[in-house]
Design brief:
178 residues, six-stranded mixed β-sheet, four-stranded antiparallel β-sheet, alpha/beta
C-alpha cells in the first residue's frame, strides 16, 4: 500500500517495514556493543514506542530488562508543548544502565520531562530514538542512538499515530505532498 488515508489526511509511503526492522536490529547491536557486558534496563515511552521497543528487544543479543512509562504531548498532529506524565516509572535503580526508548524526538519536550523524572530519582540514562527531527529539536541533550534522522514532516505507522489511528501500520507513511 503506497498511499492511504488516516482520518481526514492522505499519507504516502516513507519507509517500508523491512528497512525499519533492519535499522532497529542494527541499533540493538550498537547498544549491545556500547553496554560492554552490562545488562540494560530499557524504558519504553508509551504509546508510540511499543512497536520499536518490541522489535529492538527481540533483536537485542544479550540479557535486558524493560519497563514502561506513559507520557503525552501531542494533540492531533501538533505538539502541545506540555508533557503530561500519565503512568509513573518504577522498578528502575541507579545501578542500572538505563536506556529510554522513544519512537520520535522532535521538539524534545518529552525528553525534558523524562529528565525531570529521572533527576528526581537520581538516575542517569541514555536515549535511543527510532526517529529524530534535528530541525525541530530544541533540547540540549544528545540523542545517544538514532535510527533515522528525518525532516520535520508528520509521520504515521510502526507505532506512531494520528489522533489514535495508524499505530498498527507495518510501514511508516508521511503526510502526502499536495
Amino acid at each position: 500500500m503506497k498511499k492511504l488515508r488516516v482520518h481526514d489526511l492522505d499519507f504516502e509511503i516513507y519507509l517500508e517495514e523491512n528497512t525499519l526492522k533492519e535499522r532497529v536490529s542494527e541499533m540493538a547491536h550498537d547498544i549491545f556493543r556500547e553496554m560492554k557486558g552490562k545488562t540494560p534496563h530499557f524504558v519504553a515511552i508509551l504509546n508510540g514506542s511499543f512497536v520499536f521497543a518490541s522489535d529492538l528487544l527481540r533483536a537485542y543479543p544479550g540479557d535486558c530488562k524493560i519497563s514502561f512509562v506513559k507520557l503525552s504531548s501531542y494533540d492531533g498532529m501538533v505538539s502541545t508543548g506540555k508533557v503530561n506524565e500519565l503512568i509513573g516509572l518504577k522498578d528502575v535503580s541507579a545501578e542500572e544502565a538505563i536506556i529510554v526508548l522513544e519512537d520520535i524526538v522532535d521538539t524534545g519536550g518529552t525528553l525534558l520531562k523524562i529528565d525531570e523524572i529521572f533527576k528526581a530519582q537520581d538516575l542517569e540514562w541514555q536515549i535511543a530514538s527510532l526517529f529524530f527531527k534535528p530541525i525541530a529539536y530544541k533540547g540540549k541533550r544528545e540523542i545517544d542512538f538514532v535510527g533515522f534522522e528525518i525532516l520535520n514532516d508528520f509521520i504515521v505507522g510502526y507505532g506512531l499515530d494520528y489522533n489514535g489511528l495508524g499505530r498498527n501500520l507495518k510501514n511508516v507513511y508521511q503526510l502526502a505532498k499536495a
